[in-house]
Amino acid sequence: MTTLKYPTFIPRPKEEYSGFLGTIWSWITTVDHKKIGTLYGITAFIWFLVGGIEALLIRLQLYAPEAKVLSPEVYNQVFTMHGTTMIFLVVMPLSAAFFNWIVPLQLGARDVAFPRLNAFSYWTFLFGGILLNLSWIFGEAPNAGWFAYAPNSSFPYNPGYGVTFWIIGLQALGVASLAAGFNFLATIINLRAPGMTFFKLPVFIWMTAVVNVLIVLAFPIITVALLQLMFDRQFGTNFFNAVQGGDPVMWQHLFWLFGHPEVYILILPAMGIVSEVLPTFSKKPLFGYSFIVFSGIGIGFLGWFVWSHHMFTVGLGPAANSAFAISTMLIAVPTGVKIFNWIATLWGGSIRINSSLLFSVGFIAMFVIGGLSGVTHASPPSDAQQQDTYYVVAHFHYVLFGGAILGLFSGIYFWWPKMTGRILNEKLGVAHFLVTLIGFNVTFFPMHWLGMDGMPRRVFTYPEGMGWDLSNLISTIGAFSIALGTLIFIFNVFFSTRGPKNAGNDPWDARTLEWTISSPPPHYNFAEIPEVKYRDDFWFKKYPELAHGEVSGASASEVNNDDDHHVEMPDLSYYPFFLSLSIVLILGSLLDLSWNGSWYIAGVGILMFVWSLLGWSFEPVNEETSNQKDH
After folding, report:
1. Are 207 and 277 in contact, with CB atoms under 8 Å apart?
2. Where are the domains positioned within the chain?
3. Proportion of the chain in helix, strand, coil states, percent, rounded to 5
4. Which pTM was predicted?
5. What is the pLDDT of residue 555?
């Protein structure tokens, strides 16, 4: 039987960078998955603050009847950018930050499969987000809602640059997501440690795999829809113009055929995080590992068959409505399986209560509420009453904030010691959790009865005497409570980074491979590639007496560290940065084709694209390695 050889790593001496500009250049040229994960996380959190400010402006406008905080047009712009920012610039890239940081470490790998492509994905995300928000400077931010329904988003009804900014910004973000999706799938398939079969993968890795399959399959759909909308706006085609034979309902089909898998792209990473946190802090193996894995796969599969529940009032007919009602009800089954398995994991465990566990438990509770309200939308007669009311707003915020955001915060508190070597302050963490959870429920729970009482969504004001005044005032107070919780978190981060590195390698007595190495990890992650014999391999190596009765699944090969071989790590590269910039320049030139300067911008972008692509193609792949052994 062939013995695989995984040589001992001999680190290259750290490059010297002089001054502030040198440090900036080192981040621009990095291809280290951990630094890219940090860039994703910091950038996404900045957008989280931007999206939060937009949410506060919305709530200020609605705190009382006939308020004058925002004009109707500015309200539409803020409303559109809030939804777009939170989905595409916050939840998705925050998940990508965890993918970058944790996936290679849990796999026992030294990096992702394509480090330069990883850097390209981040820079394209950054420039796409900036391009999208440049619309504020031009005074014409997108105003058609984050869903941009045609014909409201078509040029005759929405002239100006706002919707065009939205189109090209999302196209850039789609390129970034697709690059990341292929990269993480290749990493999970090819870079698993010896002995780590698919059913020894941590659940977080499984959920990452499902998410990136959905990304690879879903984003081409929205890409086609955006191209059609752009051609309608810029070149006079009629894909969505009913007068000329187009079909505006086709936009809804394309958008939601992307948009409902997108919901699971947003929530499955949080489900993976919770599946790592609960076993660690209950000191028990995850209950029903296989059921949770197959439930995640089932959610990803069924997510393709539910999109038209967003369209029950469009007039698709009873047959289509019935089919999508049934599929929507069915997708609640694998979700319920996960919830019962998480509860069973906690049941009877030796529970250690801390911030990370509290956010995970809060995720479960809020997601249950969001799921139950979602089931009511699965019935077409019920949905016909709730459609376009604040009941829907309450539902998706319970799923995407109460679910995704709380789950991501759980992951931040859980893996922060591994990323930084420091543990976040627990008292501040608990305060952050309590203020956020209470503020969240104060904000969004009243929206259920606002919706049932008939308050429509997407309106910038409402008249007196409707009975909605108090509930809206309470929701606005709750929104500022969430903001207070976020400020507590920021102070916690600032406070902890000024303290000593106190985490150690394994502060939580955890179960997976990332906790076997130093905190923060070295550039090369693992000096020796680990060999995996068990699911939760690190746990059973610490407590071999607990491995009795486990299926060992010992690897057929052993690690052989041969001093004559040396690991080569990828070199620094600036080509991903410039290739991303060139793509955004080309897309930006499409804003106004009647302006001569657009062609110059396009020309610069094309030249930069060709130069970057050729430079990337001929660039040396790996660092030179030292012949000196690391002691």
Report:
1. no
2. 36-554+583-618
3. 65, 0, 35
4. 0.93
5. 36
